[in-house]
Known about the structure:
- The protein is mostly helical.
- It contains twelve helices and two strands; from the N terminus they run ααβααβαααααααα.
- The chain has a two-stranded parallel ribbon with strand order 1-2.
- The longest helix is centred in the last third of the chain and has 22 residues.
Amino acid sequence: MSLPQPGDTSARHLISSVGLDQTLFVEAGAGTGKTTQLVERIVSLVIGERLRLENIAAITFTEAAASELQARVRAAFESRVIDQATSPKVRTLCEEAIEDSDQAAISTVHGFASRILNEFSTEAGLPPRVKVLDEIASQLAHEQRWERFVDQLHANQDHHELLIRLSLLDIALSPSYLGQASFKNVAAIFNQNWDRLTGLASTDVGPMEELDFTDFDRAVNDLASLVEFCTDPQDKLCLHLQANLLPSMGAIVSMSDQHRKLRALVLRAKNAASRWKVGSGGATKNWTIPVR
């Protein structure tokens, strides 16, 4: 009694044998046999197409997957060597593949790239020995680059205005506690996506622009003018503006030192946010100003 064949038999047959000269995209769920089909495809290329295993590249995303695939490919050839039904010609091909298995290009993307750069370092204009850093070494290298960047940032007079504004805005270069947002977090993201930053490092953004509070000053003056149109002297919003908001905002408008003005705005915004979070209890109040 023969077992029923899976419904995707033709697709599996295409992957492992008849479609060896085609570029295929295979989409399937976990545990459906994608790795098995890939192993069979490699075996068919060696036995059916007479390709040496060392001339086949199999690329995976993780080191674990690459190790598993390499072990399964070797096991597939070994099983055919010990199979009494295997012809002498096929057994010879399988034995050659076993000899090539340790040098086969079955690896991760970065492992494959490293192999190419090492084998063709002269053509790539690189030193004879190129190695891929592991995760820990890569993190240490990033930390060293960040420390050099911070040292250079503080040493350059052109960057002093930037550092002053970062301090006034409470923006940290490096986190002081776990989870604090900082420029170092941004640098880490850039480090992980360096290939998307082509040309960015050479972009000259020029000197920092002067602080401009024109829009803020105009908004405070417009708000003060609007209060004059209130027809109800007991209106709560109007009283709040006159007693609380406009005096502090007016004091900030009158400041001539632009750095003091920026810092005062930051503190005012933080205090307002704190009062709303603690005092409102999540309630939303709607106020209107009747105008004549």
